């Protein structure tokens, strides 16, 4: 198959959306997995969002731990 946009041979498909990819369509590769440019951007946003969520949860857990420490001091 040939990429309609670039006229190059299709070498795979995006692991998230399934779009066929030629070498110019690839936004990111992870091992043998390939992602289109749009999904690789979304993947970065998704990972960043998860990291922010994790930081918030860790901060809340630390605040709870500090409150309990203050409550049970003798």
Give structural notes.
The protein has 74 residues and is an alpha+beta fold. The protein has one domain. The chain contains one helix and four strands, in the order ββββα. The chain has one helix at residues 37-71, and strands at residues 12-13, 20-21, 26-30, 33-36. A hairpin with a 6-residue loop joins strand 1 and strand 2. The model has no long low-confidence stretch (mean pLDDT 88).
What descriptors fit this protein?
rod-shaped; 74 residues; alpha+beta; two-stranded antiparallel ribbon
Write the layout of secondary structure elements.
Layout lengths: L11 E2 L6 E2 L4 E5 L2 E4 H35 L3
Antiparallel strand pairs: 1-2, 3-4
Shape type:
rod-shaped
User: What is the total tally of β strands?
Assistant: 4
Unreliable residue runs? none
**What class, by secondary structure content?**
alpha+beta
The share of residues in extended strands comes to 15-25%
Q: Could you report the average pLDDT, rounded to the nearest whole number?
A: 88
Count of separate DSSP helical elements: 1
Main sheet: strand order: 1-2
Task: Give the gist of this structure.
It is built from one helix and four strands. The protein is an alpha+beta fold. The longest helix is centred in the last third of the chain and has 35 residues, at 37-71.
């Amino acid at each position: 198959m040939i990429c309609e946009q670039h006229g190059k041979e299709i070498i795979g498909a995006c692991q998230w959306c399934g779009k066929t990819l030629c070498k110019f369509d690839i936004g990111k590769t992870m091992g043998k997995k390939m992602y289109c440019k749009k999904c690789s951007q979304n993947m970065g946003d998704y990972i960043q969002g998860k990291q922010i969520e994790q930081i918030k949860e860790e901060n809340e857990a630390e605040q709870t731990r500090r409150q309990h420490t203050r409550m049970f001091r003798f």
